[in-house]
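Question (not urgent): is this output format expected?
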Amino acid sequence: MGWSIEEVSKHRDSRSCWIVIRNEVYDVTEFLSKHPGGPSIILKYAGRDATSAYEPIHPSDAIQQYLSSAQRLGPLNSTDIQDLEAQERKRERTEDEIKVEEAMKQRPPLNRLLNLADIEDVARKVLPHSALAFFSAGAEDELTLRENARAFDRFFFHGRVMRPVSKCDPSTKILGFHSSLPVFVSGASTAKLGHPLGELNITRGCGTANIIQMVCTYASISRAEIAAAALPSQTLFFQLYKSTDLAVATNLVQEAEQLGFKAIFLTVDAIVITTRERDVRSPWVLEAQTGNIQYYSEGDPDGATNLLGTSSLHVNRNNVLDADMSWQITIPWLRSITKLPIVLKGIQCVEDAVLAAEMGVEGILLSNHGGRQLEYSLPPLEVLYKIHKQRPDVFEKLEVYIDGGIRRGTDVIKAICLGAKAVGLGRPFLYALSAYGEVGVSKMLSILEREIVTSMRLLGAASIDDLTPELIERVDWEPRFPAGLLIKVQSSKFLCLMISALLGFAGWTFVPNIATRHALKIVLQLYTQLSGRPSPAPGQQLYSQLYRYTYATVVLAYLLYNLINGSNNMAPNFYEILGVSPLVDENGLKLAFRQFAKRFHPDRVGPQGAELFMQTRDAFEALKNPTIRFAYDRFGPDVLQWSKLSTSREYLHHGLLQASGYHLATAIGLLVFSALGKQSPVKFWRYLLFFVFFGSELAYVLNPSPSAVSVFSFAFWDPTNGGTRPNLLHILFPHRVVYQHILFLHQMFIFTSIALTQVAPQLFPNNEQDEQQKFLQQISSLAAFCDREASITLHTEMQSLHPSTRTRSEMQPVLQPTVEVIDALTVELKNMIIETKVKQDTGPLRNVWESAIARKRTRSEAGASRLVIPSSDTERTQPPTPASACEGEGKLPSPRPSPPPRISSYARARSLSWS
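Got this back:
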């Protein structure tokens, strides 16, 4: 009949805990305290079906191994089985499941896979989020994980030529067992997370290629199944995680020996499990997809977190792994229970390598657990190099292997040249089986073989024995990256800055004035059209106001233009070139660079793109170091030339010292301008701008890594979000980093200071200047008006003297005036008109004029012609007639008392008006 789901659901706590696995009901109440991963993971599925959580992690015989027949309660009834299957079919799939299904359909064919990175790219797309997080995660900040791979970049070859290499044999022997390549599978657990057949895919693929496989204690396929799937001639090694229970550890070793495993690799670098934060966070991402997000409440516990992640399914920090292993006890114990060769997996320094040789083990595997254990442990290749330099005798006493960071055939050869017997790969095999199963493993091995053989031939090595230390050299490699993105030398960069500064100064000197003259014409036309009044003349107050406002508008528009132009012309950072966000993690950076390389590799775009590609590649290699990336985000590409710095503090100190030069020069310049210039309120605002921008820059540089930004902030720095990003600038330029925002602020300070200097005097003139300007404008207006009136009057008076303008009755025989007489009369008429206008003025101008005339009277010589301002409206001194006017024919005679000279009636009327 079977059990019902309803009955099973009643047993869902530690007092009575039942679970369903593959439609079988088990009572695991007594097993809770014995579970290697602790009771919490089982209690999570208490009273319900736990198959989906159990299958990807455990071997098929795990239940039979740990539970007695009495704890197997029997099957579910058929009705409930059908109900569970129906519920599973109706269950709404998560975003992660949909993504995996679509990615599986879009996998490229095997012939498109050129290297191990291509296989990894496919695996990252087809793996579920939790599986990818477990496979790819490293300890804490994952610096060691990254440095494992970067270490190979510091070693370069000395290729030998003219050596026969048509027959090249890359095979070797590992602990006396033949291998077609100097490569083996390093132990990795839970391969079923990536493929239902798990480690069986690796076993079958390696069997065909004659590659040795190391099987982990926590493999998701049982050791018996793996041994059964192996070819008769295939070699298997066993990786032992020693338990605190000696009986359990002894049984594991003896079982492996009985199944035909050829060596024991004792793991010595994983006595505790460190926090692999990416793996720990992966369930929280899936919670968001299923809508089961948890939030803080006052009743929450003390905040304890499952820091083991997926590893908690295998081990418990308290009672599984033996943290008391020692050279004096553990090695003799292991030697006493097996005759198999012993290799210590996890040696991380020269001293322990020497101790291992003294203890008589057959080999050591230099490893930091793929960067998953001790953060900041040396890369295995660096440890290998140290052994080669300091204790080369170790290689004569035992075999040395390394793993961690190996992704190319050249990586394998570098390790062999430095003395390694073979190298292990872990993650690449997991990625290969996850992406393509068994054929993926075979494809991966064929790629490695091609790369190894090709590199051996180019090195002049016909066999593994020819790979000697003379073929390799450690180089303290520095990025071949210039001071600017496309500027090769610092002098060129300085020259560009000087030219830009000169052009900017010239622009601010001439452009606003020229543009204002043209813009003012348009403003005056608009004023006339809109108001219906004539345009104000120069010198009038309205004209001055319109000029000021037009000038201020032009300057502000030119300021905006300069800011936009400076922003658009800013060289892109490497995140922008690669098309990723500055917040991208290292894996995303790698993927982006691979895509960039596919499009812009010199093989595709030709030699003209080689420089950009090499610059970007070198910068990418440098930015994989989180310390250099920290400095690059804050101080720009120049940090790639700071070769002697190693810590973030050193980079920060060096960068701040360099930046202080700019601020010191700016401060001195402000003080000099203030001392030489006139007193002005603009100085205060200029100083205020300087300190505001200086404080903003300091806040950007000293803040930690970027974080999310509130789009509602309109300040350059918002303390409410930690001050980790200039909010407004980040909103405007989301793909830029701190050093670009700082450069933009420098431009903004310079342009704003110049604009403020030009606009402020126009918009806010002081009172003394304003009164003086009004007085000068009044004089200018009066002078222009007088000149215009005098010209009109003179023209009228001169017309009256011409014979053609006189009436018939006035045609008397008189002598015509000479040109000199007319000129003298013109001058006198102008003077009289000006005198009249001055007399009409009631302001300070008349007083000034009368004082000037009085001084002139006292200084004038006797008989000289002078202008006299009459004391009354009826007094006037007649202008003297030049002496030259009385001489010669056709000249006017000297004035006589009677009769008076004949003049026109219009002239007589004007004479009356003057008096």
